[in-house]
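tl;dr need the bound structure. longer version: we got a ligand (adenosine monophosphate) that a collaborator sent over and nobodys looked at where it sits. i said id run it. heres the input, straight from their email, havent touched it
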Amino acid sequence: MSDWEDEYDEDGAAIPKSVTRSAPTESKLPINVYKTQNVSFGVRNGPRFGGPRQEKAVSGGKYGQWRGEGGLRNTDPEDGPGFRTLGGGRSGFSPVTITVENASVGRIIGKVNKGDYESEVVIFGSSPAQQKAKELIEDLVADCPSRGGGYNGGAGSGSVWSAEELQAANVTPVRQVIDWNAIRENKDKYEELKWKDVAPMKKNFYTEAKSVSMLTTEEVSEWRKENNNIFVDDLKEEGEKRPIPNPCRTFLEAFELYPEIMENIERVGFVKPTPIQSQAWPVLLSGEDLIAIAQTGTGKTLAYLLPGFIHMDGQPVPRDDRGGPGMLVLTPTRELALQIEEECNKYRYKGYKSVCVYGGGDRRGQINVVKKGVDIVIATPGRLNDLQMNELINLHSITYLVLDEADRMLDMGFEPQILKILLDIRPDRQTVMTSATWPVGVRRLARSYLKNPMMVYVGTLDLAAVNTVDQTILIVSEEEKKSYVFNFIRSMQPDDKVIIFVGKKLLVDDLSSDMCLQGLAVQSLHGDREQCDREEALKDFREGRVHILVATDLASRGLDVCDITHVFNYDFPRNIEEYVHRVGRTGRAGRSGAAVTLVTRENWKMAPELIPILERAGQDVPTELVLMAERYEKHKKEREMSNPREGQRRWGRREPKW
Ligand code: AMP
């Protein structure tokens, strides 16, 4: 997330943190002195401030105070010009606070306060003692040539200000206007210069096999549907969209021209490509940038590694003349880096060497391997950035870049390091980004650092399951929900098994107690239950001792009970992915399943996202849901019109087009 780090409102927009300004903290000051940090004691005094040091103690009667008549200067820009009283207190012995240049502080007793130049000195004791101390401090400070040119430049004034400074002090500061256009132009020029001597690069290594070209559109869409409902899109924003390559359903269709790759595949014994591989290989071998939305375990590592090998081998500049690695894989954690390295080491291609560079590992050892020369660097952003800043690794030679698990890298706060690393990698490289999710932060990163990417989205098995589930949507009020769920239970057949999903743990307990009271055999599952109770609940449900499980989304993913016949969404889930996961609990292993979902007015913002899911799965879309979606879209637009800035924040700036 992180962008990853704001809090979000119900629309998914970041809630700006309120800027609170603390009131003056009088109580922290030794006496009732406000803003003493904003008052310069007149050690810099000169003509403007009334000539050489003229401060003197002024007895304030009950609230004894002194002030430098000519030498006190209010330096707070928000306070405007003028003098401010220092000191003062409830007795004649109240402490006095003066402010002096930091440069002088080393020589006197004081504490550095806010600000770059000045320090605050609080003097305690009786008025005469304070006065005496103040004079001593003055003398000390006056003796101190605190600024580069010495303090006596003030033409015999005894001031620490030079004549130029004093003159400058009389001039109202002019706001510098930043010429952003010039800066941008310079940046572009600098970029051009920086990359003008890079080696030539080749990206396209793909020849479509005849059997792939011959696939009809229907065959392709059928194949995609059957293979985890894989979805491919061209994210090119300008000009005509490109044709989306057909999938390679066999290894040979992708790598017929690369026998060494085929040998490797035969050696490891894989039978056929995973869905992500089938769709990613033609895209990557064609030299296009790719965003792969896929989770670990889908075969995504091999999806980018094999085209990477071919890419490196096909570069016009010989390997030894490139001066550094050709492929970089950035990944969030040490474990993942090691896992990728292990995967990489399974394959032997042209003797390519890889190194794993991660924090916590043997830095010196990693540097030594890099120095000896490697082709592939698998790294966590922090450690790589460290090597980069210390010029221990050359990133200019990288032409194939992988940002693996981008969402997690952002969640872990690696964005600054990634951006620094990317500055040193040639902009015309080929880039692959993988991510398990597709939040705004990842979209923004992709938009900034990938060029006209293709996107391959591989759903989980749940997504495929969702197509085999009969989905009913009921628009109800909150009060009606209980009667709906009990009606549903009454209509259950003896072999039916249902998970009832609710939003809150308390409601799980509430609903399951109600059911128990009505004599129903029911189990419940949520995060506040003891582990042993959770295990027992699942066991009872799995083994059929109970046919009703009331649960939170704790049970929406990964729960593999193959004979669940129904999913009942008592509360609509927080997001549409969760809906898909919940529905995917039924209809597994080729069985049919049914889902009933209660939707209330409060869930209206989910309607526009729910409709396409239902349509894709060939389900009826209730008219009320369509109206709800329309109302929500209208409301969204109106809100945007009435408050364009808010609109921009909510739906414009934060949400890249894709
Ligand atoms: P990954 O999603 O990259 O973490 O891969 C998960 C596991 O799947 C790794 O152990 C791979 O070796 C394995 N794998 C990758 N591609 C295939 C394939 N085509 N067939 C079977 N296993 C594969």
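gonna send this back to them w/ a short note. The chain is about 35% helix and 15% strand.
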